[in-house]
TrEMBL record:
The keyword Transmembrane does not apply. This is Putative spermidine/putrescine transport system ATP-binding protein. The keyword Transport applies. PROSITE patterns: ABC_TRANSPORTER_1, ABC_TRANSPORTER_2.
Length: 362
């Protein structure tokens, strides 16, 4: 594992009695694409703006390449920044926009010219060099903003929801571009989004923010397979959450009962839960099996089929538990479908205990 390049240590920021972020710590490796993912108001931008120097933390520190960053004036930090709204200078050509950070740094004209060409080629906009920003589409303007932010080879590029003003198709196109640009330049990126799909598509690792804290950091796959909390399980991918009263717990396994009295075993036991506690069982829709209940003897959770949706590659079943909770089941369309599974039918749901997670949160 490569050593941390950007170290965010115990950052806290308060506004009067509002705690914007608390105890935010994170190590980012050189060249990593790190995304801050979380709902609105969870503290993503505050953390990013402290790194950028737009805000000062109440407590905590940030190290870049081992050196304290917060004592460096914002304009001396050499950190690139791209915002949600394209912030190009409207009266400068595309080429001059990209040249701007180099002019501010008094770089020689020959270097500026070469760099502008190189950056515009990187974002595939060489032919637009002499146009004005207003003559470009939103997506093109955002690519110019990326070229400008990278023009002076900043060690870190900060991006605050840079694609959220674009429509879905364009957003997906630029996500691909961004991945390529990241690979070609090797720049370390901190990227803020509230869109889990975008985070999964772009990131090497994702830091999941909730209520001013980081709940978990990991690759998309890690977060999906091993969510550390109910919040993460609900934010990354879809989940069913079923109420369970714990009846016994031992190494990595728990037993419990559902509200209808059905006993179950579940895996990955949360050590803070003991017999008698109420917990929440998480099961992903694609990890459940559904079969028709023909003779009333099949083991598993009895349910009633409420709705069936054909999704092309999968079938989605909405089923109701005996305590009238609706849960989602997703079966691959390639699997042969049981003709007994019609709307209104009685059915049985099963799963493997090892695929479930038990959380203390209700
Ligand atoms: P996010 O980027 O995840 O949407 P923010 O970092 O913008 O979240 O905000 C985190 C919390 O801090 C929110 O509760 C927000 O209302 C609060 N906050 C942010 N900026 C200010 C400010 N200037 N004054 C007061 N509260 C603020």
């Amino acid at each position: 594992m490569t050593a941390a390049f950007l170290q965010i240590q115990r950052l806290r920021k308060t506004y009067d009695d509002v705690v914007a972020i608390d105890s935010v710590s994170l190590d980012v490796r050189k060249g990593e694409f790190m995304t801050f993912l979380g709902p609105s108001g969870s503290g993503k931008s505050t953390t990013l703006y402290i790194v950028a120097g737009f805000q000062e933390p109440t407590e905590g520190r940030v190290l870049l390449d081992g050196k304290p960053l917060l004592s460096v004036a914002p304009n001396k930090r050499n950190i690139g920044m791209v915002f949600q709204r394209y912030t190009l200078f409207p009266h400068l050509t595309v080429g001059e926009n990209v040249a701007f950070p180099l002019r501010v740094r008094h770089r020689p004209e020959s270097e500026i010219k070469a760099k502008v060409e190189k950056m515009l080629a990187l974002v595939h906009l060489s032919e637009c060099r002499d146009r004005m920003p207003a003559q470009l589409s939103g997506g093109q303007q955002q690519r110019v903003a990326i070229a400008r932010a990278l023009a002076y080879d900043p060690p870190v590029l900060l991006m605050d929801e840079p694609l959220s003003a674009l429509d879905k198709k364009l957003r997906e196109e630029i996500q691909l571009e961004l991945r390529r640009i990241h690979q070609e330049t090797g720049v370390t990126i901190l990227y803020v989004t509230h869109d889990q799909e975008e985070a999964l598509r772009l990131s090497d690792r994702i830091a999941v923010f909730n209520k001013g804290r980081i709940e978990q950091v990991g690759s998309g796959e890690e977060l999906y397979a091993n969510p550390a909390s109910r919040f993460v399980a609900g934010f990354i991918g879809n989940s069913n959450f079923l109420p369970v009263r714990v009846t016994a717990s031992r190494d990595g396994l728990a037993n419990g009962v559902f509200p209808n009295g059905l006993a179950l075993a579940c895996g990955n036991f949360n050590p803070s839960l003991a017999a008698g506690d109420d917990g929440t069982l998480m099961i992903r829709p694609e990890q459940m099996r559904l079969s028709a209940q023909r003779d009333g003897t099949a083991a598993g959770l009895p349910v009633t089929v409420r709705d069936i949706t054909y999704l092309g590659d999968a079938m989605h079943y909405a089923v109701a538990t005996p305590w009238a909770q609706e849960i989602s089941i997703r079966l691959p369309a390639a699997q042969r479908h049981d003709s007994g599974l019609a709307v209104g039918a009685q059915a049985v749901v099963e799963w493997d205990a090892g695929d479930t997670r038990l959380f203390a949160q209700p």
